[in-house]
Amino acid sequence: MTERLLVLTRHGESEWNLKNLFTGWKDPGLTPKGVDEARRAGRQLKALGIGFDIAFTSALGRAQHTCELMLEEIGQPNLATIKDWRLNERDYGDLSGLNKAETAEKYGAEQVHIWRRSYDVPPPAGESLKDTVARVLPYYVGEILPRAMRGERVLVAAHGNSLRALVMVLDGLDAETIPSMELKTGVPLVYRLNADTTVATKQILEG
């Protein structure tokens, strides 16, 4: 029986997550806690007997480092890994690098909430979640999903918003629901797919 395994993991805590800054396409590294989260995620998967045939990650260092640490813990440090910008975090444009609380003071909490949690309103010079979905989903359908459907065991280490795009499809969520869904750093989502690409089972490896 074909396994059709797909594991999604948001990168471990980054230096800018810790400082409460908008990150987007900026490239801060992982904190020591983020390194620990990535290693723990790998150990959790290994404990379940899960290994991979291929890994995908973004063009950003925090996701790539997370992927590397997970694969080290699983015992697959040399696994083929495809890096692509289309799995990058949502681009926060002019907000990138700004403190979230200070940005709320400058623009108003309501406006910042709209930028962060609406589906189709982008921040200045940035991407909305809808824009992010528009680049992530074709990549998923064209490059990632076919491998899982062939029976390859697939790991995707990426970002909160690029993974929201995938969870939106996998979990059947709508534009009203997905912006408020939180994906914790370093927590693997283990999906097993049916022959028609729908989800057979989903497991969240917390703690």
From TrEMBL:
Domain of life: Bacteria
Catalytic residues of the enzyme: 11 (tele-phosphohistidine intermediate), 89 (proton donor/acceptor)
Site positions for Transition state stabilizer: 159
InterPro entries (alphabetical): His_Pase_superF_clade-1, His_PPase_superfam, PG/BPGM_mutase_AS, Phosphogly_mut1
SMART domains in the cross-refs: PGAM
Cited PROSITE patterns: PG_MUTASE
GO molecular function: phosphoglycerate mutase activity
Annotated Pfam families: His_Phos_1 (PF00300)
Pathway: Carbohydrate degradation; glycolysis; pyruvate from D-glyceraldehyde 3-phosphate: step 3/5
Positions annotated to bind substrate: 10-17, 23-24, 62, 89-92, 100, 116-117, 160-161
Function (record text): Catalyzes the interconversion of 2-phosphoglycerate and 3-phosphoglycerate.
PANTHER family: PHOSPHOGLYCERATE MUTASE (PTHR11931)
CDD domains per record: HP_PGM_like
Family matches, as NCBIfam families: pgm_1, PRK01295.1
Entry's family note: Belongs to the phosphoglycerate mutase family. BPG-dependent PGAM subfamily.
Gene Ontology BP annotations: gluconeogenesis; glycolytic process
The protein's name: 2,3-bisphosphoglycerate-dependent phosphoglycerate mutase
Keywords recorded for this protein, A-Z: Gluconeogenesis, Glycolysis, Isomerase
Reactions catalysed according to its record: (2R)-2-phosphoglycerate = (2R)-3-phosphoglycerate
EC number: 5.4.2.11
Assembly: Homodimer.
